[in-house]
Specification:
Radius of gyration of chain A: 13 Å
Largest sheet of chain A: 6 strands, mixed
Structural class of chain A: mainly beta
Oligomer: heterodimer
Strand content of chain A: over 45%
Radius of gyration of chain B: 13 Å
Distance between the termini of chain A: 40 Å
Number of strands of chain B: 10
Helix content of chain B: under 10%
Largest interface: A-B, 18 and 22 residues
Distance between the termini of chain B: 28 Å
Largest sheet of chain B: 7 strands, mixed
Shape of chain B: globular
Shape of chain A: globular
Number of helices of chain A: 0
Number of helices of chain B: 0
């Protein structure tokens, strides 16, 4: 069975960076894109971008350009998203999800940006 | 403000039917497949419908999806209290080169 297991909650100060991992199991990791979606407290879903683990190609939402990095390590079937220059409004639950469609989701990683 | 417009809330009694609309434009719904997700508060979203009207594996046929022009609709029949959740539509937008989501609709089964 397919599982996406994310790293634990993070507390960061404004201006810092955070890196969240997403370990996949139960399927061929390189056969599906991994997308990242976040959800601020009480808000809706916001797409961050995707990575093709097979090629390393990435695509990001305009608002995150220059501040986000997505990588993957095929040897351990793990994808990563790193967000730099954190601001308080980056506080959110960050989800990885397999695509397409977005059929399997990780459990979420809460990132709290607070001074 | 979301690119896709959903009603903030809908409600209906158990056993009844409800529809949730998702309005977009020619650059998203009008040209790409729509998906629908269910999210119980405190949990990750769950895929219900993809490619406009295909039920994902294990999703009961009480859930259906349809699309016309630049609008999509999620229908739920035989409402159960367990259907109470937030529902989101999602679709690729080629003008934005981004996946976009509706603002979400809170379903109350009362």
């Amino acid at each position: 069975q397919v599982h996406l297991v994310q790293s634990g909650a993070e507390v960061k100060k404004p201006g810092a960076s955070v890196k969240v991992s997403c370990k996949a199991s139960g399927y061929t990791f390189t056969a599906y894109y991994i997308q990242w979606v976040r959800q601020a407290p009480g808000q809706g879903l916001e797409w961050i971008g995707w990575i093709n683990p097979n090629s390393g190609d990435t695509k990001f939402a305009q608002k995150f350009q220059g501040r986000v990095t997505m990588t993957s390590d095929t040897s351990i079937s793990t994808a990563y998203v790193e967000l730099s220059r954190l601001k308080s409004d980056d506080t959110a639950m960050y989800y990885c999800t397999r695509s397409s469609p977005l059929d399997y989701w990780g459990q979420g990683t809460l990132v709290n940006v607070s001074s | 403000q979301s690119v896709l417009t959903q009603p903030p809330s809908v409600s209906a009694p158990p056993g009844q039917k409800v529809t949730i609309s998702c309005s977009g434009s020619s650059s998203n719904i009008g040209d790409h497949y729509v998906s629908w997700y269910q999210q119980v508060p405190g949990t990750a979203p769950k895929l219900l419908i993809y490619d406009d009207n295909k039920r994902y594996s294990g999703i009961p046929d009480r859930f259906s999806g349809s699309k016309s022009g630049t609008s999509a609709t999620l229908g739920i029949t035989g409402l159960q209290t367990g259907d109470e959740a937030d529902y989101y539509c999602g679709v690729w937008d080629h003008s934005l080169s981004a996946e976009v989501f509706g603002g979400g609709t809170k379903l109350t089964v009362l």
